[in-house]
Specification:
Blueprint (H helix, E strand, L loop, with lengths): L10 H10 L4 E9 L4 E10 L2 E6 L5 H11 L2 H11 L1
Antiparallel strand pairs: 1-2, 2-3
Helix pairs in contact: 2-3
Length: 85
């Protein structure tokens, strides 16, 4: 895993570099917000330079299949969930 430390307003340039290079992988962010004095952690999933997922944590395969089944089509969701276990 590579760690990159960045200053204010540099994150956009870092994301642009990942987009230009068509990078794929996980990007874990820990941001210190000055006025709150606490860290905020997020994870982004990149595929070919595009952000395809972002949240506080990555869901498990089972949780992801359940969520997709609820939002798209319940008929296949049980089969997908069975494949993740």
């Amino acid at each position: 895993m590579i760690s990159i430390f960045y200053q204010e307003r540099e994150l956009a340039n870092i994301l642009k570099t990942f987009q230009t290079n068509r990078s794929s992988g996980f990007l874990y962010l820990d941001a210190e917000v000055n006025f709150q004095n606490k860290k905020k952690s997020r994870v982004l999933v990149l595929q070919n330079g595009q952000i395809v997922y972002g949240d506080i944590i990555l869901p498990t395969n089972k949780k992801n299949a359940q969520t997709q089944g609820q939002k798209l089509n319940r008929e296949w969701s049980e089969s997908a969930i069975a494949l993740t276990t």
